User: Fold this.
Amino acid sequence: GENVEQHPSTLSVQEGDSAVIKCTYSDSASNYFPWYKQELGKRPQLIIDIRSNVGEKKDQRIAVTLNKTAKHFSLHITETQPEDSAVYFCAACGPNDYKLSFGAGTTVTVRA
Amino acid sequence: GAGVSQSPRYKVAKRGQDVALRCDPISGHVSLFWYQQALGQGPEFLTYFQNEAQLDKSGLPSDRFFAERPEGSVSTLKIQRTQQEDSAVYLCASSLVRDRAEAFFGQGTRLTVV
Assistant:
């Protein structure tokens, strides 16, 4: 089955700086890569996703890049704010197109 | 409702007790998923429904776990004879269309088996 690895496990950044989280996946047939943000005790919220027919997608301060050859994708958050502090999960979806395989998560702390 | 609703939010069960966890998906959503999230880990897939049909139950950890969605909307995840390793957050998610992973999650039920 699909195996998703996520790094780093924790990330502390100064407010205003950028944060980058990287994920690798094992199944070359995977074609859907969402990112979820989960605040303590709350539901995972989809913040951005990318499909394998594009290499980059941007939505205001967040962007995701995908390198299908290397089987890795990354989340970039620019101009970080304290409200960006949360656990971020990457995921990949295999050829059956419904089962998400998640990374272990990155705890992001934005220091004011 | 506006989002996926799960109940109860918290459940403490004595070892050996049966529990039932409820999920109300977003109205009209065809697909429904259950995931298990252990402390400090990402969610892990348990099972998938398309309307009332359970198309994939490959992630259910044992035959003590059973899920149903009899009328294609509300779903129940039942765990029989709970054990300590069942302690986790159980997340439900729904998706508007079939076979698509763009899912919206509920807040989960935190199950603690003592």
User: Anything to note?
Assistant: Chain A touches chain B at residues 4, 6, 32, 34, 36, 41-46, 49, 89, 91, 93, 96-105 (CB under 8 Å). The two ends of chain A are 41 Å apart (CA to CA).
